[in-house]
Amino acid sequence: MDAATIKGVVDRLIRRGLLAAEPDAADGRRLLVTLTAKGAEWARRLAPKAHAVTAETLAPLAPEEQQTLLSLLLRLR
Questions:
Q1: Torsions phi, psi for 2 (to 5 deg)
Q2: Exposed, middle or buried: residue 42 (CB in 10 Å: 0-12, 13-18, 19+)?
């Protein structure tokens, strides 16, 4: 995602009470973003669904192909 898209997503999650943000005391140009208790609960509850979607997405690939794809995606970070 580009910076503008990330900012929009973060702003929406803050409005929903899932994230909190505060300026970085060491670098005023940065904003520190953390999960709220509500956000952490949502993440805990929804993680199994996210894992299921990932498994379904990768299912057509052989295990070694899955590893190759995941390795390549990590290189794009």
A1: -85, 170
A2: middle
- Predicted model pTM: 0.70
- Cα(63)–Cα(8) distance, integer angstroms: 36
Beta strands in 25-73 (DSSP E): 27-35
* Structure confidence by residue, pLDDT tens digits, 24-63: 999 988 989 999 999 999 999 999 999 999 999 999 999 9
d(CA 17, CA 42): 11
Output the CA torsion sign for 65, 70, 74, 76. positive
Domain positions in the chain: 1-35, 47-77
Closest CA relative to residue 71, chosen from 56, 58, 59: 58
